[in-house]
């Protein structure tokens, strides 16, 4: 009886923390945009606050948050299924390289308008293949999932470095798409509704995954196989098959994050261009308590820290050494994650191999 009550209290606490994380994520988003409106539309714009909360800072923050959000969503769907995925960095890098190669080859054939979409589909496919390898090693061959994820990162890093040709050059990238009426809203319209295709896809995916994960049969089954796979198997859910599917979908999301870097942000590929974004995505996932909305709020926080770093460097701040300013996003990541140790709980069956009886 006491054990049952303790378990129930633990579940209630987890639900409360999950709701609190999502609520704080929305509060963070609303607060940033409110401050931006005040700075842009009032006399506050003439003060140092413009450096911290101007449109430029928010635009950069959202741009930096997109790949982190996609990586965090990849982590959420995998780890909610019970599969630890630290290979997001590798899937992201491989997706970026795959998109770049197809984009370059398609440009050579003169199919420029179609090349962007072919490249994006390639990134999804490459991410899915890398995730399938991770799932195969983790589920069928029972390799330690941390080791398996490390293999994916090493494999992606090695292959992209070996096959990359510095002479390749990609032409064009996804441009901004202004949504009629909404893009005319002061400040908010320019920041949210005048973005590229992948940015819009990311914002849509955050909402869709939040609803699906907590309001659909798929979401219920996903959470079940991550919390208590034996019970899920008892009611007829094929645990390992669903883990395969979800891990592959997670890999596609990581591949899309790589596609964003090549097709919407930078426009070119550089060796190691993910620069630790996969690991920051994992931090966003943990900080967001394994929820899509919470992960987006955390990604936006980390993206804002990068934007702040960028704004300070552009403003020529010299009182603080440049290297300390460059450390800011990583320091914020470490502080955020360590501050939440013990306050968040991963899925109970995360990292555990399941064998059906």
Structure description:
It is a single chain. With 357 residues, this protein is mostly helical. It has one domain (16-339): ABC transporter involved in vitamin B12 uptake, BtuC, CATH 1.10.3470. Helices cover 72% and strands 1% of the residues. It contains 15 helices and two strands. The protein has helices at 2-41, 49-53, 55-79, 88-108, 112-140, 145-163, 188-192, 197-215, 217-227, 229-234, 239-265, 277-287, 292-314, 322-326, 328-339; strands at residues 177-178, 194-195. The protein has a two-stranded antiparallel ribbon. It is globular, with a radius of gyration of 21 Å. It starts with a helix and ends in an 18-residue tail after the last helix. The model is unreliable at 6-17 (pLDDT under 50).
Q: Tally the beta strands.
A: 2
What is the topology, as strand order, of the major beta sheet?
A: 1-2
Q: Give helix and strand order, one letter per element, not per position.
A: HHHHHHEHEHHHHHHHH
- Looking at the overall shape, the CATH architecture is Orthogonal Bundle
* Coarse shape: globular
Q: Which CATH C-level class is it?
A: Mainly Alpha
The portion of residues assigned to helices is over 70%
Distance between the termini: 28 Å
Total domain modules: 1
In oligomeric terms, what are we looking at? single chain
Total number of helices: 15
The assigned structural class equals mainly alpha
Instruction: Look at the structure and give the mean pLDDT.
Output: 86
Rg over C-alpha atoms, rounded to the nearest angstrom:
21 Å
- Low-pLDDT parts are 6-17
The largest sheet, given as strand count, sense and whether it forms a barrel, is: 2 strands, antiparallel
Report the portion of residues in β strands.
Answer: under 5%
Q: In the CATH scheme, what's the topology name?
A: ABC transporter involved in vitamin B12 uptake, BtuC
